[in-house]
Amino acid sequence: MSQCWAQTYIVYLGSHAYGPDASTEEHARATESHHELLGSVLGSKQIAKDAMLYSYTKSINGFAAYLEEEVATQIAKHPDVVTVMESKMMKLHTTRSWDFMDMERDGQILPDSIWKHAKFGEDVIIASLDTGVWPESNSFTDDDIVSDVPKRWRGSCPDTAKYGVPCNKKLIGAKYFNKDVLAHDPSAVTGNWTRDTEGHGTHTLSTAGGRFVPSANLFGYANGTAKGGAPRARLATYKVCWSGVCAGADILAGFDSAIHDGADVISVSFGPDQPFNDMDQFLQEASALGSLHAAIRGIAVVCSGGNAGPLEDTVVNSAPWVTTVAASTVDRDFPNVLTLGNSAHMKLVAAFAIKFDDMDHQSQGVSLETTTLHASKLYPLIKASDAGLPGTNPIVASTCPLDTLDPAKVKGKIVVCIRGGDIDRLAKGKAVLNAGGAAMIHANAEMDGDELEADVHVLPATMITYKESLSLFEYMSSTTKPVANISPSKTEMGVKNSPSVATFSSRGPSSTLPYVLKPDIAAPGVDILAAFTEYISPSEIDGDDRRSEYAIMSGTSMAAPHVAGVMALVRGARPDWSPAAMRSAIMTTARTKDNMGQPMRDQHGGGEANAFAIGAGNIHPNRAIDPGLVYDLAPEDYLAFLCALGYSTRDVERMSASKFSCPAKSPPMEDLNYPSIVVPSLRHSATVTRRLKNVGPPGTYRATWRAPFGIEMAVVPATLEFKTAGEVKEFKVTFKSDKDKLGRGYVFGRLIWSDGTHHVRSPVVVNALD
């Protein structure tokens, strides 16, 4: 007999036939039908009610229940069920940025800024699925909002807890969903409220749509006016993540509510640990399913791409109906200086090949420390691998886990901790502090390369590059008494060769859907200042009593709400555009060069960033409202795409609650009318089809292209004449492989349509197999 155990399953039945204005009686009947279906398998409706966590009754038709595997298998055979999936756990993808993207200059809004064209996102509604909100933040006050909440809004702030979240004219919705995470780990839930006890949700929500707040800073760093992308947008938060974990059934409940309540844009900054490697499992994930329902209803969904870079095939949230975001840097750093030894101690640093006969060697690192060392004193240096408690493996000790360092060896010294080891960066500093260390040097390993992240440490600290780390260890090996000092940090603006793609940002190709390029776009995601909870310290370290209304954080989690904010602005300026048209406008107007006029670099290795790292490029908001042409998609295109994935007409009809028939021959997945072009398996030759829609004045557009290396590329026709707004023209792109240049893997090119004023750019990616 097979062993059975209970866990949460989502039973998906498709869409509800009724619209968003359905009555409470219709919602109740839907729940009753769910009880009857589950009860027919479990033996009674009462048992079904006890097992059920959620009944999805608004846009999504289905339910989540705590079931044994055999029961879930039996339900999956029911003729009304589209699919049954396990509820999987997902993790969070953890100011100056808007200036850097040319929406303002030196604090002044530019005349052609998208902010002015879009009226700062006035009355567009942004929903965030995250860890909730800290409502007392000045980013969410409604002091400058005169108009009432839009009448189309159906949401509310139903918290009744003592520390609940009240609504105002800015923050117009706040709900929490935690039944699934409670079933897995009750200790993860701090309270039945939407209040943010982690800071992540407050940070992302204020980045997307927080109001202008002057004199915002983190302990004096990055001082200036904090700004959300769409500062006059209305905001709603759906707390589906608890203690860093987001449960699938809770996520789907959040999507169902946000869609029904009337959101225009949904921002999502979490995802699975790794992508699915099987297209058959594509819709076995709550975010993919929830975002499909949003897209069918005309709601733009923006998702973080993940923080598993620089490895390839790590990008998540790869559905073609969402906009997937990579993380890039801005031109602001928080440097400090690491001074090593003097003429009595340092003789040679090999990586720099410089002799230090009469001077100290100085390396630049980054940090956001709030305490400093004595400037005139040099402190003894010790490697964490040499400072472990008796019996501790030196390799383990080298990454500074808590309670592994020997106070007798560490007291009063600067400890060198190696990055990695699945140990939180700030927790390493706490380990050094607990052991009596004076300061910490966080040394990058080879995989980390030049990626530096400023952290709000609990002691004087700095992070240094891999190259600098090699120099440091060379110096420490050259003397029996290595010494050093770490200067206080400062805020430095105008950093050159920015933006670059962050090393941690997840990369394509997408093994889940290799026919669609992901990520779509890059946006600022490194050292971003935004609102934060005052429930915990920005360091999130136990025992750290510091509090700040604003914090600096990094991750694709921070990049996604930048794009969500721009999406809200585009919606405000172009309310008749579809989510696909908005995404196309953002992608085809993106920048691919840095502030030195050079191709965007990859922090990992320093070379040119390819489309698997940055998608179409770095977002350039001001251009997005006037792209000239767009690659548009309707819900029917996504439904046909599902047919190509193997879903039947019956399944697709139920997903969309509409009359739809899969075509007799499904179109190739490469022909989905996406702004980027991917041919994942070119054998000799291939042709892809695209359609362009005119959203500007009449004009003639001509194609130019750079073929991927070893590939012959042709565009037919190479000239498109548009006489009216809304006119659609089709073209084909043919690829042929050069047999003498095969075996190089993926190669990259581009296609540009231009009328002399507009430049509609698309990345092109080809993998020639034979």
TrEMBL record:
<comment type="similarity">
    <text>Belongs to the peptidase S8 family.</text>
</comment>
<feature type="domain" description="Peptidase S8/S53">
    <location>
        <begin position="121"/>
        <end position="601"/>
    </location>
</feature>
<keyword id="KW-0378">Hydrolase</keyword>
<keyword id="KW-0720">Serine protease</keyword>
<dbReference type="InterPro" id="IPR041469">
    <property type="entry name" value="Subtilisin-like_FN3"/>
</dbReference>
<feature type="domain" description="Inhibitor I9">
    <location>
        <begin position="8"/>
        <end position="93"/>
    </location>
</feature>
<feature type="active site" description="Charge relay system">
    <location>
        <position position="200"/>
    </location>
</feature>
<dbReference type="InterPro" id="IPR037045">
    <property type="entry name" value="S8pro/Inhibitor_I9_sf"/>
</dbReference>
<protein>
    <recommendedName>
        <fullName>Subtilisin-like protease</fullName>
    </recommendedName>
</protein>
<dbReference type="InterPro" id="IPR015500">
    <property type="entry name" value="Peptidase_S8_subtilisin-rel"/>
</dbReference>
<dbReference type="InterPro" id="IPR010259">
    <property type="entry name" value="S8pro/Inhibitor_I9"/>
</dbReference>
<dbReference type="InterPro" id="IPR036852">
    <property type="entry name" value="Peptidase_S8/S53_dom_sf"/>
</dbReference>
<keyword id="KW-0732">Signal</keyword>
<feature type="domain" description="PA">
    <location>
        <begin position="394"/>
        <end position="471"/>
    </location>
</feature>
<dbReference type="Pfam" id="PF02225">
    <property type="entry name" value="PA"/>
</dbReference>
<feature type="active site" description="Charge relay system">
    <location>
        <position position="557"/>
    </location>
</feature>
<dbReference type="InterPro" id="IPR000209">
    <property type="entry name" value="Peptidase_S8/S53_dom"/>
</dbReference>
<dbReference type="GO" id="GO:0004252">
    <property type="term" value="F:serine-type endopeptidase activity"/>
</dbReference>
<feature type="domain" description="Subtilisin-like protease fibronectin type-III">
    <location>
        <begin position="671"/>
        <end position="766"/>
    </location>
</feature>
<dbReference type="InterPro" id="IPR023828">
    <property type="entry name" value="Peptidase_S8_Ser-AS"/>
</dbReference>
<keyword id="KW-0645">Protease</keyword>
<dbReference type="GO" id="GO:0006508">
    <property type="term" value="P:proteolysis"/>
</dbReference>
<dbReference type="InterPro" id="IPR045051">
    <property type="entry name" value="SBT"/>
</dbReference>
<feature type="active site" description="Charge relay system">
    <location>
        <position position="130"/>
    </location>
</feature>
<dbReference type="Pfam" id="PF00082">
    <property type="entry name" value="Peptidase_S8"/>
</dbReference>
<dbReference type="InterPro" id="IPR034197">
    <property type="entry name" value="Peptidases_S8_3"/>
</dbReference>
<dbReference type="Pfam" id="PF05922">
    <property type="entry name" value="Inhibitor_I9"/>
</dbReference>
<dbReference type="Pfam" id="PF17766">
    <property type="entry name" value="fn3_6"/>
</dbReference>
<dbReference type="InterPro" id="IPR003137">
    <property type="entry name" value="PA_domain"/>
</dbReference>
